[in-house]
Amino acid sequence: MRRTDPGGPSATTGQPLPFGVPDTAAPRLEDLMSRVARGDKDAFSALYDALSGTVFGLVVRVVRDRAQSEEVAQEVMIDLWRQAARYRPGEGSVLAWAATLAHRRAVDRVRSAQAAINREHDQAARQQARPFDEVAEQVETRLESEQVRRCMRGLTEIQRQAVTLAYYQGLTYREVAETLRTPLPTIKTRMRDGLIRLRDCMGVTT
To answer: Is-contact 67 78, C-beta < 8 A?
Structure first.
């Protein structure tokens, strides 16, 4: 993890302190925080050396990924610099306050990462489904045409029955499965394959 100088470029520190800060350090940490609140960069440097290892240890327990944990820990240390004036000794130790900031930042990072994954999955699902939705729309609007009837004859029996029930009679996939006494996954697969064949036969572009 790299030391963050809030007023200038980062500089590499030595090895981080072991996880945990002894209680005897509490008065010194409060003094450092008081000086940091007044803009003392030397005090911030000392505070960084005292807390960075603990902050990183707390973050990595939540985030798991080491590279992301280092980023989050840096953000926490910057928060300590920026919010130093808000620290109130009577409401808890500096270490407890830093731990609260670290946990909050770590949880936010995990939630943000999960939300990004969910968005990617949703987008991929929509992109996968869109071509077949477009085929279905065009099939519906052209279902009475001779071309569709000709293409329908090129389907297998179960495909033709499934498409007919779904688009002529408006049945849902589950209702089609019940009518044909065929497992729902099989019906979905046959419908999908049938729509692909109709698309190719009708020259529908996707």
So the answer is: no
Domain that holds residue 56: 2-117
Clarify whether residues 8 and 87 are in a common domain: yes
Task: Judge whether 105 and 76 are in contact, CB under 8 Å.
Answer: yes
Answer for the pair 94, 44: CB distance below 8 angstroms, yes or no. no
Widest distance between CA atoms in the chain? 88
pLDDT in tens, 163-192: 888 776 777 878 888 888 888 888 888 888
For the range 29-33, what are the long-range contacts, defined as Cβ-Cβ under 8 Å and sequence gap of 24 or more? 29/93, 29/94, 29/95, 30/89, 30/93, 30/94, 32/94, 33/80, 33/84, 33/87, 33/94
- Asked if residue 43 lies in contact with residue 85, where contact means CB atoms within 8 angstroms, the answer is no
Residue 103 CA neighbour count, 13 Å, CB half: 6
pLDDT greater than 70 at residue 8: no
CA–CA distance, 191 with 193 (Å, rounded to integer): 5
In this prediction, residue 25 has a pLDDT band, given cuts at 50, 70 and 90, of: low
Which residue's structure tokens are 């949880």? 107
Q: What is the pTM of this model?
A: 0.49
Kindly state the average pLDDT of the residues 62-80: 92
On whether both 111 and 146 belong to a single domain, the answer is no
Please tell me the predicted confidence (pLDDT) of residue 46. Answer: 93
| Same domain assignment for residues 103 and 157 | no
The residue from 117, 133, 154 where one domain ends is 117
